[in-house]
Amino acid sequence: MNYELSDQQKATQAEIAKFCREAIAPQAIALDSSAKDQAAGILRSNLKKLADAGYLDILLEDDLIAQCVAGEELAKACPSTFITAMSSLTAFGTALKLFGTAAQKDKYLSGLAKGEKIGCLAYTEATAGSDLGLMQTKAEKQGEGYMLNGVKDLVTNAPLANAFLVLAWTDPEAGLERGTTLFLMEKGSAGFSIGNSLETLGLCGAPTAAVSFESCRVPASAIVGAVGGGYSAVQTILEYVKLALSSMSVGIGVACLETSTIHGKTKKAFGKPIGLFEGVGAKLAIMFTLNDIGRMLTHRAAWGMLEREAESAILTSCAKLFTGEGVNEIADLAMQVHGGHGYIKGTLVEKLYRDARFASIAYGTSEMQRASIARNSLNKYKQV
Ligand SMILES: Cc1cc2nc3c(=O)[nH]c(=O)nc-3n(C[C@H](O)[C@H](O)[C@H](O)COP(=O)(O)OP(=O)(O)OC[C@H]3O[C@@H](n4cnc5c(N)ncnc54)[C@H](O)[C@@H]3O)c2cc1C
Fold first, then answer.
1. Most informative mutation of 86, 120, 123, 124 for ligand 1 (most atoms within 8 A of CB)
2. 70 in contact with ligand 1, CB cutoff 6 A
3. 123 CA closest ligand 1 atom index
4. Second label for 353, Cα 20 to 30 Å away, from 41, 140, 246, 322?
5. All residues at 6 or more sequence positions from 136 whose CB lies less than 8 Å from its CB, including other chains
6. How far apart are CA 269 and CA 343, in angstroms?
């Protein structure tokens, strides 16, 4: 068994880490606290910088380990930039790559990789998050096309995006597995409106909003994948998204460890650096260990997906669960190491603490990951 990255992956990691440290991280706190229009400018500029340096398209490439390595470094530098890039390239771009028509790919993929176009994925609704069976959005057949009505909630990138992948019922009687379809909706379509940016606890630089469709005409050419295959396509896309979020959690975790270690070495109490007290040192050790196991699980899940392992979806759930819960614990420990000065708004550790909270909620809560993992075990050992 070889845990080493390839020479190419190691080189990519070193280059991206340096680039993100120098070109992305210095704006992270300003991005988090800026007014929405100013934040949008910083985000667009970050995407362009990453694209011009040749790093954005890594998120669309087939090498999932490289995606994890790049994702960790970007999230370590700026979780808001990571989540915008992830929603555009992974959630939207990978979906088009896997399920899109040639015309849809031609129109969007190179623009996404150049940071000129931004995409997003919209499946959640106010009444339907973990349970998509409660979705209300419907696309009714009208001639060759469809008429779309409904409201999607909590859509990352919505205020910035040019294009949206939207999950809707096309045949509610057929149930989720066969009755939903993904549509590619473009900004500016008649009947399509985008809500104001929501105020979020963390990842404040990445805009999130609701989008509404009111008697919105959709041509058949906007269908992504098979009619009736929308839910299954979203489940596949979410495997890539969960993997990406696992690398994000590790990136935030490493940022927490780094800032806590520096604080542990520089802040003194009772005649020595606080990191030399066992109570503080033990926290650094737990943070390191959680990050290390989280990264191993994430890379193992990426490997499982690449190798089409039978249990790869479970490995991805394990990675998302462990890293999502882990980064919450790590951020909590980091706050404790920083004491009262970490509790002040505008400090790095305060931002990381808020950003980390997203990891065990979005794109499949920890409870839903546990349910999938448990279901797998129950099926596997059903003969007992
Ligand atoms: C900042 C942000 C960005 C997001 N971006 C996007 C996006 O771009 N696109 C998109 O479509 N969505 C997005 N989401 C939505 C996100 O994926 C959902 O919030 C998430 O899936 C949970 O759904 P919910 O919020 O409806 O919570 P609910 O499903 O209502 O869950 C509430 C609680 O009930 C628990 N629960 C529910 N069912 C069960 C069960 N069977 N067993 C045990 N516990 C259960 C959950 O685990 C959770 O603790 C985003 C969310 C956030 C916060």
1. 124
2. no
3. 11
4. 41
5. 125, 127, 128, 150, 151
6. 19
**Mutational test site, ligand 1, from 365, 366, 372, 373, max ligand atoms within 8 Å of CB:** 365
- Which residue owns the Cα nearest ligand 1 atom 35? 367
Cβ–Cβ under 8 Å, residues 76 and 199: no
Query: What is the residue with the minimal CA distance to atom 52 of ligand 1?
Result: 362
Using alpha carbons, select from 104, 112, 124, 97 the residue that is nearest to residue 160. 112
The pairing of strands 192-194 and 272-273 is unpaired
Q: Check if 231 has its Cβ closer than 6 Å to any atom of ligand 1.
A: no
Strands 138-142 and 145-156: antiparallel
328-343: per-residue pLDDT in tens? Answer: 999 999 999 999 999 9
For residue 383, pLDDT over 90 is answered with no
Bridge pairing between strands 119-122 and 163-169:
parallel
Taken in order 255, 39, 242, 321, is the CA torsion positive or negative? Answer: positive
CATH number corresponding to 119-229: 2.40.110.10
pTM of the predicted model over 0.90: yes
Q: Say yes or no: CB of residue 154 within 6 Å of ligand 1.
A: yes
pLDDT, tens digit, 9 for 90 and up, residues 347-378: 999 999 999 999 999 999 999 999 999 999 99
Query: Closest Cα partner for 56 from 26, 90, 23?
Result: 90
| C-beta 362 within 6 A of ligand 1 | yes
State the distance from the centre of ligand 1 to the C-alpha of 337, rounded, in angstroms: 30
Ligand 1, atom 6: closest residue by C-alpha: 155
Domain over 7-113 is classified CATH 1.10.540.10? yes
Select from 3.40.50.720, 3.40.50.150, 1.20.1250.20, 1.20.140.10 the CATH code of 232-380.
Answer: 1.20.140.10
Atom of ligand 1 nearest to the CA of 91: 8
